[in-house]
Amino acid sequence: MKGLIAMSTQWDSAMLLDRFDDVRAHTEALAAPLSPEDQTVQSMADVSPTKWHRAHVTWFFETFVLAEHEPDFSPFNEKYWFLFNSYYESLGPRFSRPQRGLVTRPGAYDVGVYRGNVDVRVRELIATLDSGTLDKLTPVIELGFHHEQQHQELLLMDIKHVLSVNPLEPIYAGRPSEHSTPDDLGWVDIEAGLVEIGFQGSGFRFDNEEPRHRVWLEPYRLADRLITNGEWLEFMIDGGYRRHELWLSDGWGKVSAEKWAAPLYWFERDGLWFEHTLSGTWPVNPGLPVSHVSFYEADAYATWAGKRLPSEAEWEFGVVSKGEPIDGNLADGQTFHPRAAGAATGGLRQAFGDCWEWTSSAYHPYPGYHAPAGAIGEYNGKFMSSQMVLRGGCALTSPHHARATYRNFFPHSARWALSGVRLADGGSPLVASA
Question: Which CATH number does the domain housing residue 107 bear?
Fold first, then answer.
């Protein structure tokens, strides 16, 4: 979940201050239900402690805003630059990611003090800069907003994993959806040809969404909704996790080595399947989208169903050409979990929100892409290897990130992200770009 701003919206200092306060306060609101102990635990290497997320996004503002522009700048704590640097090689050494949970100090309260100090200083800087300097700094500040919102999503995904290993089955927030059953899966036909994808226009976007370019697409179909838990149970009953012929070789290696038998957070108790959610542990609801499945699982399900996953170009062009609005089950709804698709519309239901949707596309640069120079250029370009693209956002995603061109990415085997499956048919998963 990395990216870089390409162009800023027009802001004045009052607008920046309001947005800064909103974004920073929301992070603290997400952390508020958690104890200091909750905020320190790291349950696996891919998960970061809550207090680390709170500190890292603060480090970002301190490093890229205050250090560059605050008169007589001095870091709040020089050791924090080592502890809370995530992956910026050009900014010096950093603490090992898999060992972040071993750092009990600073504690959650101390991180709050750090956040408060940086907040005051950033606010003072924004309020006192002349308009010309502020215009130059605004793109970095706006990137900081979006960066923190990305970490708000990660904070929720990570604490979900942390709480899942607790035998007391604690609740974070929210309440379960009503029991539902899947409706019939529909299909939306899309006439394509030589189309354009990628961001165009003004406003915020990450650098990996550009440049806009042409792609050839054969006519294809997209499923009108996400695959449900009930449909996934049919895959499991038919031996989906035991049939090697359905799986890519690396995927079958993961299934065998890690004993996958169901989506992450599912477990069987007295013959009934249950699912851990942020609102507690509940019987698997058959009408909700299946979630927390890896690319390997998504691909195996598509093979079992006689279909395939869409390419990212097919996903983007399909959503744009059908005029799907950005009004799905996103973070502002505070459901913290996917919801049922609702009645068929003739279009693409659940295009935005609920679950990030795996595509068949490797995360590579678009034709003509060049990573920006400097430390901030490390934000994105160097991750364009060994990962797959997901589209559409999830129930934990800020609406500010939900757009048709947004490219999320995770490794093939990642399951802790809130990811799901939309099928494609016809056409070809191979595309040519020009």
Answer: 1.20.120
